[in-house]
Amino acid sequence: LYLPVRGGPEAAVTAWLTALDGAAPQGGFTHKTLRQWKNRHGDDKGGHRSFTVIRHPLARAHAVFCERILATGPDTFATIRANLRANHGLPIPEDAPPPDWPDADHRAAFASFLTFLKANLGGQTSVRVDPSWASQTAVLQGFAGFALPDHILREDEMGEALPRLAASLGAPATPLPDAPSDPHAARLARIHDDGLEALA
Fold first, then answer.
1. pLDDT tens for residues 102-117?
2. From CA 43, how far away is CA 83, in angstroms rounded?
């Protein structure tokens, strides 16, 4: 049972689960349907394990910035993006930036987003705290009302930990797909500095 932390390596874990079972994972559980699933997969039927994967906070904020704020189109936060540009001085173009957008401009915009996040998480903005950037501690506490994870894995450990977890339940020790779990890591590495760490 995978409990995703938004802004984390959801796509990589979902791809791994799909490779493990040969089918896409089932989602959309309610308290009732999750309880039924757990009963169907109880210890007398081979058992189950629940897990989540957390990401370094700076990398997580950067992924959310790239995928939900900087980008435009489906699955992005267009209204929040417009609010950040108009009311918080987020220095990003009206449309998605071009592929050759300079790293210096990307860094300045990301630093501005981190400044917004600090205010947002401190209740000092009118923008909702989205699960994509709520603290991972808050997200884990939120799981408590639904299902606590048996394992909390770090993104940089999941390449070894997930196959080991599958093997512990008698499933094949399926390796993770070759694709990087964070497609934005290279750009973050190019702009990373002590200033961004301090803001995060």
1. 999 999 999 999 999 9
2. 49
